[in-house]
Each structure stands twice: as structure tokens, then as C-alpha cells.
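Lab notebook, bench 4. The sequencing result for the construct came back, and we need a structural model before the next group meeting so we can plan mutations. Quick request posted to the team channel:

Model the 3D structure of this chain.
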Amino acid sequence: MSMKEFNALDGALLIDKTAGPTSHDIVDTVRQCYRIKKVGHCGTLDPAATGLLVLLLGRATKLSEKLMADDKVYVGSIKLGETTNTYDAEGEIGETKLVPDLALEALQVAANAFLGDQMQLPPMVSAIKIDGTPLHKLARKGVEVERRKRFIHLYKFLISAYEPPYAWFKVACTKGTYVRSLAHDLGQALGCGAHLAGLRRTISGRFKVSAATRLEELPALSPDDLAKRVVPILQLSASAES
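Done. Here's the predicted structure in C-alpha cell form:
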């Protein structure tokens, strides 16, 4: 296909998401601001999470499945001693336990146990659908259902700093990894419980958040300005096939 077959807005737009809006909110914002019929994304970020959201515009939405399979990198923080029903700071506190006297090295040893291949149980508050209904809708009704564990791989789980009860981390992982579940599972392994306190996605495949457009910049961009920030579809196609 030649470039003449595509317009300037067929491609990927990198957004640096702020805390608050859902990934779908941002898709709607771009669709409405620039009157683009087809807009999708390559991997949801929770409303409280920030960082890289890869949007696909126009004909590039056909590449969604291939690009969504890319590995991801996150940084964030975990609060030890408290569990929540959502596994993150947005949920209701469940158990509260005393945090043991831990050194950074001991935390890293515990984190290392999660490296490699594993089967991860998704949280109830998630977008995964059971019989067509998202789990988070069932969770809001107080319904808990059996979930299937999903295969994931962790390349890196680095504990970069620790100031009780907070631990800061960096995770490199395959698609479909729930970092909230990872935080919860680490707390269970330590015996004191934990939940995800903050999360930021920095890398998705070959894309980095440093190259992304801040969400608050969007309303001021003309279609021509936006087009200059779009990664062309032919470039995306070459990346997906490599």
C-alpha cells in the first residue's frame, strides 16, 4: 500500500494519561475533538493510573491486536500492611496488619520470586468479561465469581526504594499483567498484605511516554498539529511485522 491510500491521521497517537479519566474517556475525547470515526487503544490503564496510552486512529485500528501484544514497563508504589477489595488505593480497606521489619534487600528477594512464567489471578474489579458482563460491574453488586488464571511473564520486578510502609518498584512484563494483583500477591507473600498505591506506564513495545502528548494539550491542537504527532500507519505496520 502506498502512503496516498492513507490520510495524515491514520496511525498511532501517544498520550501521557493523567489520573482520573478512563482509557475510554480519552478515546472519546480524541474521537469528538477531531471527528475521527475509528479510535481505539492498545491496552487499558486504570483511571487512577498515569502514563503511556497508545491510541490507534482511523485505519490503524486494524493493528490493535498485534500492537496490544507488546510488552509493557511500569513504575509505581506499593503500600504494605493494607489490603483493599480492588487491590489498589481506590478500593475499600479490608485487612490491616503490622508491617514486619524489612530491609530493601529482603523485599527484593520476595519480589524475585515472581520473576518468570506464572499464572496470575485477575482481580474482581477488572474489565475482564464473564458471560458478557465485566467483572467490575459484578464486583460493585457484591458478587464474586470464579476467575481463570492467566499466563504472564515478568522480566523484571525491581524494588528501587523502601520507606515503610511504601515500596517503589519497576516492572517489565508481558501483556495482560495486572500490576494490582502483583502488589496484592507480594503482600500475601510477606504476610502483611499490600495494595498498589500508584502506577505509571512508561513503555509499551517500542513506544515511550517521553514521546507522548500530554492529555491537557489535546484541546489546543489543530488537526494539522495533531497529524505531526501521529506515528504513520506504514511505520506501525513495519513494526508489527518485525
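The mean pLDDT is 88.
Will bring this to the meeting.
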